[in-house]
Each structure stands twice: as structure tokens, then as C-alpha cells.
Amino acid sequence: MTAAAAELTTPIPAADRAPARSRGGFSVGRTLKYAVLLAFLLVVLIPVYVLVVTSFKGPGDASPARAWNLPTTWTLDNWTAAWTALSPALWRTVQMVVPAAIISSFLGSMNGFVLSRWRFRGADLVFTLILFGMFIPYQAVMIPLLQLMLGMGVPSGVPSLILLHVIYGIPITTLIFRNYYQTIPNELIEASRVDGAGMLRTYASVVLPISVPSFVVVLIWQFTSAWNDFLFAVFFSSSQNGPVTLALNNLANGALLTNYGQSMAGALLASFPTLLVYVLLGKYFIGGLMSGSVKG
Amino acid sequence: MPRNLRRWGPPLLLISPSLILVAVFVYGLLGVNAKTAMTDVHTAAQTTGRAPSSFVGLENFGDLLTSPDFQHSLRNLVLYTVVFLAGTMLFGFLWAWLLDRPVRFEGLFRSIYLFPMAVSFVASGVVWRWLLNSNQGESASGLNRLFQMVGLDFLQNNWWNSVNWGIAAIAIPAVWQLSGYVMALFLAGFRGIPHELREAARMDGASEWKLYRHVLFPQLSPVALSAVIIVGHMSLKAFDLIMSISKPANYQTKVPAIDMYVFKSSFDYASSAAVGVILLVVVAVLIVPYLVHLNRTEKHR
Question: Which residues does UniProt call coiled coil (chain B) (predicted)?
């Protein structure tokens, strides 16, 4: 693991373990600090408690007075109903995010390499112009985008969404890879050049092999943002061919009276994949957050 | 010339797919959108070209900016941004400050504070819609019921159903989701400050407050700027949460991004595009100086 890789996967350094006043024992200040931290922890977890508890409640627990209580009878009915309602959309979402994440990662890697290590005149300007694409409100392109996609005959649903997530993912993936490639030693590239390797050879045999940590970060980032997207889903798909965010919104807001048990089981189902990634690969997830915000 | 081509050709070729896509789908479409915003395409027949349309200049912008309806959206956007920014900066900084010194279970606290970031706004909207239920008294559920249970009845309110302040209630879930992110930024900032700096200040007999005031805060200001830019620009695009908690047709919680969607649904493409242009201008005013500033600081390194 290179130094650069280490930097990418431990974006938040450890606290200074300065052997300062470790008096041990009891101190008012420290106890207060833990109390405050714990209080915030509980507040942050309130919505989680509500989601989990409500998703297992049967219709007998419908009275508002019992809103915060545990279920009188635990039932899986909401979960089976939510699964029936959402499983086709979940499957479509998988078909959408996997190719979208992979393609936009490769594009970002190629751009990042060229813009940091195999530069041409005006590379910085090009990078800034690409980066601006990260900040535009998509509302400012949506109308002509609808017309363009219609004109190109891209089918609504999964194909449209793959294309859009790839295109509008380019700025962020380029940024992350460029920041990462700026940290690899120039000697590596130079040595390859001296050996007479061209750009593509250098990229394929020197740069790509050491890009794995960065690829993990970018793949996770793209996976999460495409999975959670709702805006493009609303404009470029329908309930018959749309992803899980759209299906969930229809489930929760479709009926006149919201069935909260079902909606909350659905919300948990829809969030499960991204939460799993967060739990298992948390440090890479944070790496993406950090490199997406602070320049190398 | 051929030599130049051999030098510059390959890198340009490698990034040409992305360049073409960004040129067309970002800059090209921004241009077409601005053009659409200056036409009188307000009906379905005109969007398909069955009825004629003509160029009307800045008329749509004038109509929008003078309509009380859209002014309400803009006011909502400002209010939402203020609550969203103030909340995330406050909690983000506070948590980072609490976790900066060695704390047992730091990883646990950090992971829990940050986890909402991994959840979609639509999914969190489901639970927040329940929490922010406007019923009070006997029929109260959600947070209003919780307030009753802990004896804080006076805190009960009608949340997002308030016409003038409803949008601030929608900002609460946004704060819940993004505070952990701002915490992570500040934490990285705190720990990027060289240990020697703190020690030196302490040696000089600086009080804890002076240490923060003159040493740590100045070091943290670039991080704070990043956080403001990121959260602020997310706030301007607010859409998902409002769609899932209230309804797009709800007057009290509408913002420009929602208006844009509503106009589009009724085939009023010109007004829809004009709202997009207005949002773009607001973002550009914020972002372009920031990008220029980043470019400069990079050059200096």
C-alpha cells in the first residue's frame, strides 16, 4: 500500500495520542463530554428507532398514543408487502448503478491521469471547465435534456439513467482521480517514459495497477449517489421502469392514507444496500467524501 | 506540426469522450436552456412544435420575479438555506470539536453521526414525514407526541404545514443527514493542524480561548469555506426531501426546484427553463469565485 493509498483510505487522521493529562479516574469535564456525545448519538438514532419499530407493527398498533411504543405483536407483514412492491424496482436499480459506476470510474481515471500526469497545454483550464459541471443545478439543463434524450431515442428508465449518471458523474470522478494521481511519484511516470512506453502503455501498466484504492473510493461514491438519486429518476423514468427511490416515493405517497408500517419497511429495504456498503467499506466512503470536497 | 500532434494528440484523444460529453450535456444544454427560457413555449402544443412559438427576450424572468408565488419560493429557499447551513455548521463543528481530542469509542460516535449521509433523502423523508406530523393533542404522533411524553407540550407545532415557516421544518431532516459530513470535514481540518503549532502557543502561555481564536480558527477557515460551499449548493437544489415529505403542489414548502418540476409537468417549458437559469445564476455567483480561488491557491503551491 503506497503512501498515497494510505492517505486516501484514512482521510481522518487519528487523534493526537499525546500523553497529556491522562489523570485517569473521574473528572467532571470528561463525564460531561461523554454525556453530550451520548445524547447526540441518541438523537441521531431517533429516526432509526422509529423506522425499525414501525416496520414491525401490525394494524393493532395504529393509535397515535402508541406511536413511540414497541409493537404489541411483531409481524413481518409490512416487510413482505414492501418487498412485493419494491423488488422489481430494486432489481432495476442494481442494473442501473453497476454499469453506471464502472463506466464513469474508468472515464474519471483516464481524465484524472491525463490532467495530472500526462498534461497538455491548457490542462488546468479544461479541468476547471469539467469541474464546473459538478456544481451546476441540473434544473438548468433538464428541459433541453428531456428533448435531447427523446430526440436520440434513448429508452426511458434504466438506459436513460445509466447514460445520465455516467455523464454527470464525470466531474466528480475526474476530480477524485486527479487528486489521487497527483500524489504518485513523478519518477514512476518518467521511468516508464524513458523505457520508451507511450501514454497508453504507461497508463495501462504503471498507473492502473496502483489505482485500486482510488477505484474503490470512486466506485462506492458513484454507486451511492446513483442509488440514492431521485431527481433524474423523476424526470427520466416512470413507476413501471424506474429505480427504487421512485418506487418508494410512490409507495409512501401514492395512497390517500399513508400506510406507515409498509412505507418504513420499504425505506429500510431501499437503504439497505448503501448502508451495507457504508458499514463494510466506511473508510473508503469517507475517502470519497473528503476528496470530493478538499483539493488533494 | 506532426511532432506537436504526436505529443498532444494522445492525451487529448484519451479524454475526448468525456470532453465531448461535458461540452454537449453541460455547456451545450445550458445554452439551449437559456434560449428556451427566452421563448413563449407555455403549452403542450408548442413543446412539440405543433403550435408556433416566438422569442420574447427576458419576459419570462420578469414575470417570474414579479409574481408573488415565485417570490414565496425564493423566500423559502433563503430560509431553508439559512437553517440548513446554520444547523450543519453548528452540529458539525461541535461534534468535531468534541471528538478532536482522544475519546474512547471515537470510531463508533463518528460512524453513527455520519451514517445518515449514506441514506437517500427519499428514504429519510418517509420517516421524517411521520416525525413531523402536524397533528397535536389527542391525535398527535411523531415528534409532537414525543414532546408530550417528556412534558414539553409547548414545543408542539404544525411543522411543515406552517405557511411562512414550514420550509424550516423540511430543513431539519437535511441537517440530520448532512451534519455528520460537516463534522468529518472539520475533524480532518482539526487533525491537519500541526501539533507543534498548538504546543508553541501553549508554551507562549496562550489561554485556551486565545489558542482557538488565533491559531486553530484561522487554520480551519478553508475547511469551513468548503463546508459552506458544499452545503449551500446542495441547499439550492433542494428537491427530494420536499417531494417525499410534503407534496409538490404544497404552497407552503415550495422552492424554485419544485416550481421547475411543476412547470414542466404542465408543459410550460419556457417558465421551467427560466427557473433553471435563475438557479444557475445563483450557483454561479457562489461557485465561480470559489473555483477561481481554488485555482489560485493551487498555482501558489
Answer: none
